[in-house]
Design a protein that fits this description.
By secondary structure, the chain is an all-alpha fold. α5 (59-78) runs antiparallel to α6 (82-107) and α6 runs antiparallel to α7. It is 71% helix and 0% strand. The chain has a domain at 34-149. The mean pLDDT is 77. It has nine helices and no strands.
Length: 173
């Protein structure tokens, strides 16, 4: 899943950069790269939903994590500078994923998974699921911080004026 998110972000950045119709969107994102981080941040709601796919009694934990994401988004929209905005996103994601990790630690003994697990999941599955949530958190922090690298991409060339594209029309005039 992490690889798919990274690939999707790479495709999104290149589409915004190279398509002529999205040039103004790319210029705005390049001026304030936290907007791209905010777009990626929105996908975390779906990511948290997938992390609890096979769990029971997870509703309160999901809503708590989503509330942290909502608070981070609200703080982002209230932020004055880039530093405040990215810290709001990183803080919201951190709180949400630590809640997910705690939820997995607390919920695993209560689960009754039918195949491949004993009646009550083992201590190892508790550690693996919690560790997976924490590794996902680290990946998400990197993904939200990565748009800061857009300022190092080479600038796009200026669009060619219409008269330079078709020299015959210039001669006829």
């Amino acid at each position: 899943m992490a690889l798919m998110i990274l690939l999707g972000a790479l495709v999104l950045v290149n589409l915004l950069r190279l398509l002529p119709y999205t040039r103004t969107v790319w210029e705005r994102i390049r001026a304030d790269w936290t907007q791209l981080s905010f777009m990626l941040y929105g996908g975390l709601v779906f990511s948290i939903l997938l992390m609890f796919e096979e769990y029971r009694q997870e509703d309160l934990w999901k809503f708590s994590a989503w509330a942290c994401l909502a608070l981070g988004a609200w703080l982002y929209l209230q932020g004055k500078g880039r530093k405040q905005r990215i810290l709001a996103l990183l803080g919201g994601a951190t709180a949400a994923f630590w809640i997910v990790a705690l939820a997995k630690w607390m919920l695993i003994p209560l689960q009754k998974w039918p195949t491949g697990y004993p009646i009550a999941p083992s201590e190892a599955s508790r550690w693996v699921e919690t560790g997976d949530a924490l590794l996902s958190w680290l990946f998400i922090l990197g993904m939200l911080s990565a748009p800061a690298l857009t300022k190092w991409l080479p600038p796009l060339p200026d669009p060619v004026p219409a008269e330079e594209e078709n020299p015959a029309s210039v001669r006829a005039a």
